[in-house]
Amino acid sequence: MAEQTSTANAWPANSAATDLIPPGRKRLGWALMIAATLVLLATIVMQILYKTEVDTIGFYTWRPVVYAYVLWGVALGAWQVLTRGEDGQRALFLLPALLFTVAMVIFPTLFGFYIALTDWNLSSFAGRRFNGLDNFWQMLADPYYRNALFNMVLYVLAVLVEYVIAFGLALLLNAQIRARKFFRVVFLLPLMLSPVAVSWMVGKSLMEYRFGPASTLARHLGWDNPAFFSDPIIARISIMVLDAWTFIPFMMIMLLAGLQAMSREVIEAARVDGATTWQTFWQVTFPLMLPVSVTAVILRIIFKLKLADIIITVTSGGPGGATDSVSSFIYREYRDRSNVGYGTMLAMVYLIIIVVFVTWLLKLASRFVRNVN
Amino acid sequence: MSVQTTEYTVSDIRSPAAFLASRVFIYGALVFWSFICLFPIYWTITTSFKSAVDVTQGHLIPFVDFRPDWKGWRSLGLSPDSIFQTSTVRDEFLKRFMNSVITSVGASSLAIIIGSLAAYGLTRYRYKFAWFKNEDISFFFLSQLILPPVVLALPFLVLYREVALLDTRIGLVLLYTLMVLPIVIWIMRDQFNSIPVELEEAALVDGLSIWGAFFRIVMPIALPGMVAAFILAMVLCWNEYFFAALLTSTDAKTIPVMVASQTGSQGINWWSMAALATAAIAPLAIIGIALERYLIMGMTAGSVK
User: Fold this and answer.
1) For B215-238, what is each residue's pLDDT tens digit?
2) Is B65 inside a domain boundary?
3) Calpha distance B33→B35 (Å, rounded)
4) Are residues B109 and B204 in the same domain?
5) Which A-chain residues 139-168 have CB contacts (< 8 A) with chain B?
6) What is the full per-residue pLDDT of chain A (373 aa) written as tens digits?
7) CA B295/CA B305 separation, integer angstroms
8) pTM of the entire structure?
9) Residues B219, B162: one domain?
10) B135 and B274 co-located in one domain
11) To the nearest whole angstrom, how far is the Cα of A3 from the nearest Cα of chain B?
């Protein structure tokens, strides 16, 4: 841990504090830290030896390593406080979240990159077998994965339609209406419902082919054969609609907050100058709302990239993989063949694509907002 | 949310006809969208009281179209006449329900605790871990948001098997905490930024330690933000399906997994599915409606400057 300096708002008595710590306390801190590190290392080494059958002393599972890590984390905190006084106490604010995230993300992701290079069927006894880039070549030849990636592009594009609807709803809620709070709660309701329950409620019963109310309505409107999930294109649209239904409120609320934070004088001024409602919207409201809009759309895209549960429960990727998102495809790939290696390779490639895409998106967005304003 | 009056300003009233038309359009649109939001919920709740004939004939309005019956709720063991009898389905349901409650409350609490501490540290002090400064650490936390569950799911499946956390509630709690932590940090950072530093300086002068100032002075002020973050985290955890479907099998299965598994197995049993879906969405819908203010506060944190 490197040195910390306090914020510009000078805190009383901070620089002198480190010097006042008695050497005994410092020694205790170091002793604790070294002991905990040794325990952690010893546990890991012992487990590795046991698992590789070099040794017979060890535990059946790796759980003691988890306990040793927690212990090590506690010792790390104590060491900070004991040796560095107030600066250590400050570090203590950040340490739990940092240790937790590092343990839960960095290690599994690195481990994931390793699994991606193996042929590992969890249900067979053969165990894992390192097979280099075989999974990668298999992936390049996999038409279903390409299809799933293509679907993600479509699903992400659907966000723009959702954005238009959400903006419209936000404008409605921001208009001078009665019972605003009631409408706001009602419009927000779909967001609180579990997507899995929604997929049953809407996808499997409302859109049911024979007697779902949505199908009945579609028949009345002149669509003879309202099968929402058997034609690839219509099935994709149905999935988008379902997902939009649950997530439009999310964007709506952010946009509404943006609208309410806008000063009314600007709009009034435009009105006084003789602008029509239409002109006011495009030349005043919309540009002013751009930063909020960009945030809302980007957050929504990030959530969209995780889309899985609705597809898994409504169509399980069907018809013929047409509606698969990457996540639902990998889920089925694992469920059907329990091959962790190939699934992880797909997931890791997806991660890299997402990171590149989102980084590009953020760059683009910041430039876009700057140019317009 | 600021309170706005419903008085009409002069500029809104061009001509009576145009004004009336705009009113009709606005309220028409509001009612139409309310219908879209509410109808699926209405349909689910009424279906749980329907018999098979009523479902297939598309009856919609209770007492007019069909005679409500406790059928769906009886199959769950939750109807008035079956509630005192033993029911394996009810036991199963309650077990899943408790799993959902424990995992979502546990994960949200853990995320609030470590997330608030980290957010507080990041807004008040300058850190430097090796070459990582405050901005980098914040970015590290927030960037977890883009990590799709599918990337972690399979490695965790293998790791959890090794550390014997597969199909345990603790395992789910840890993953859900990870999932909501970036959102909690995002909201709490916004909260702490809005609290003036002078308050803590005064507390320190009065002899409180850093942690004392945090617990006694800052925490009470930031409480609404914490509630907001907690509610939002609860919604996300309660509705989570992907991890739960992959990492649990018998003991730690949550409500969404139970709902999903019912649709697959024995065809669709309309009334009991409807009752189950209603029971799965009801707790959060009620909490959400009651604490809607906080939910909105959480979602809009940091987005509007």
Assistant:
1) 888 999 999 899 999 999 998 999
2) yes
3) 5
4) yes
5) 168
6) 434 443 433 344 444 445 577 888 888 888 888 998 998 898 888 888 887 777 777 777 788 888 999 999 999 988 888 888 888 888 889 999 999 998 888 888 888 888 888 887 777 766 777 777 888 888 888 888 999 999 999 999 999 999 999 999 999 998 888 888 899 999 999 988 888 888 888 888 888 777 778 888 888 888 877 788 888 888 999 999 999 999 999 999 999 998 888 888 888 888 888 888 888 888 888 888 888 899 899 999 999 999 988 998 888 877 888 888 999 999 988 888 778 888 899 999 999 999 999 999 999 988 887 776 6
7) 18
8) 0.88
9) yes
10) yes
11) 6
Residues 6+ apart with CB under 8 A from A232: A319, A320, A322, A323
Give me the residue from A62, A96, A261 closest to B304, CB to CB. A261
Q: Name the residue with tokens 């009281």.
A: B49
In-domain check, residue B81? no
The whole-angstrom separation of Cα B110 and Cα B105 is 9
Does any domain span residue B2?
Answer: no
Look at A176 and B6 and tell me if their CB atoms are within 8 Å.
yes
Cβ contact (<8 Å) for A201 and B40?
A: yes
In this structure, the answer to whether residues B178 and B215 fall within a common structural domain is: yes
Alpha-carbon gap: A354 to the closest alpha carbon of chain B (Å): 8
Q: Are residues B108 and B187 in the same domain?
A: yes
Structure tokens at B273: 């599915």
Query: Closest to B37 (Cβ–Cβ): which among A9, A187, A296?
Result: A187
The CATH number covering residue B210 comes to 1.10.3720.10
Q: Phi-psi bin for A85: left (phi > 0), alpha (psi -120 to 50), beta? A: left
B55-to-A20, A209, B47, B59, B269 alpha-carbon distances in Å:
78, 13, 7, 6, 11
Q: Are B30 and A177 in contact (CB < 8 Å)?
A: yes
Give me the residue from A2, A86, A211 closest to B130, CB to CB: A2
pLDDT for position B120: 93
- Verify that B97 and B154 share a domain, yes or no: yes
Query: Is some CB atom of chain B closer than 8 A to the CB atom of A175?
Result: yes
Q: Amino acid identity of B240?
A: E
B105-124 confidence digits (pLDDT tens)? 999 999 999 999 999 999 98
Nearest CB among B158, B164, B299 relative to A254 is that of: B299
Domain that holds residue B150: 88-300
Best CA proximity match to B242, nearest among B159, B154, B114, B112: B154
Whether A274 and chain B come into contact, CB under 8 Å, resolves to no
Q: Is A175 helix (H, G, I), strand (E, B) or coil?
A: coil
In a domain, B255, yes or no: yes
For residue A6, with 0-12 CB atoms within 10 Å meaning exposed, 13-18 middle and 19 or more buried, which class applies?
middle
Partnered with residue A129 across adjacent β-strands are A119
Separation of first and last alpha carbons in chain B = 14
Residues B109 and B18 in one domain: no
- Do B188 and B279 lie in one domain? The reply is yes
Q: Which residue has the tokens 């709720």?
A: B73
In percent, how much of chain A has pLDDT > 70? 93
Cα–Cα separations (whole angstroms), residue B173 to A363, B178, B300: 34, 9, 25
Instruction: Specify the number of domains making up chain B.
Output: 2
Q: What is the Cα–Cα distance from B200 to B191, expressed in whole angstroms?
A: 15
